[in-house]
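agent> Task received from the user: take the single chain below, predict its 3D structure, and emit structure tokens. No templates, no multimer pairing.
agent> Plan: (1) validate residues, (2) run structure prediction, (3) serialize to tokens, (4) report one or two observations.
agent> Step 1 OK, no nonstandard residues flagged.
tool_call: predict_structure(input=
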Amino acid sequence: MSITVEQLHPLFAGQVTGVDLREPLDDATITEIDTAISRLGVLVFPGQFITDAQQMDFSRRFGDLETTVKLYRKDYTPRLDPHISDVSNLDENNHIRGKDDRLRLNALGNRLWHSDSSFKRVPARFSLLSARAIPSEGGETQFADMRAAWDVLPDRTKARLDGLICEHTQLFSRGKIGFTDWSDEERVKMAPVPQVLVRTHPGSGRQSLYLSSHAGRIRGMEEPEARMLLLDLTEHATQEKFVYTHRWTIGDLVMWDNRCTMHRAREYNETQVRDMHRTTVSDGRPTVAEAA
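)
tool_result: status=success, residues=292
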């Protein structure tokens, strides 16, 4: 099987055709997909009406799957397999969550620019999101090319950023939208973890910014200065020229590399169902080599 890849944005992102993700794929096809995502960072697979089991099988070809962080939340009753992140506005009974629902309020943080699982010591490599039900308008997902953003930084800025270590936690990202409803147990489990601010992307060999709304501190830097620097870098990296916007169609599966992109969800009419299922491939190793 040979895939066809059409580039969707001048800098990154591509659409893949000629493959059916519901069927087992041979090693050569997986290698083609891995090569394509290493180059483009984001891949769109249209018309893939897959089940959760099929999505997990395909995702596992690229590494071990994460389990959802929501498992430790006492008020959360999962409606999906532990290896599927429920990126929807539905509760365990498939009813639309209310405006004051705690998990809905927490999920509003997905509208901030972020990299999946950067709040984990071992962060995510790939995320794969499939559209099962979508609203009539809105709900797009935007992606930003962190390699291209790095490339155009002034040399003096690159030198300043080299070797910096950030601290990431959902306490930082959710605090930005005013969500602070965490138990003491949750706060302990969500302690900040270190991540490099600049990383070399393994698939392409290119350097990349590693930004996320979860980043709130930079080691060795006063907090106001660190937050200002992170805000400035995020503003730079999410300029329109670096951003691809995906407008969903039911059956789409989008795969992206968290090591060289950021993404965010966009607003939609929450009286309508938006049901998206995500698998997340662990990167397998921390970005900062130090004792846990």
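agent> Step 4: summary for the user.
Residues 4-282 form a domain with the Double-stranded beta-helix fold (CATH 3.60.130.10).
agent> Done.
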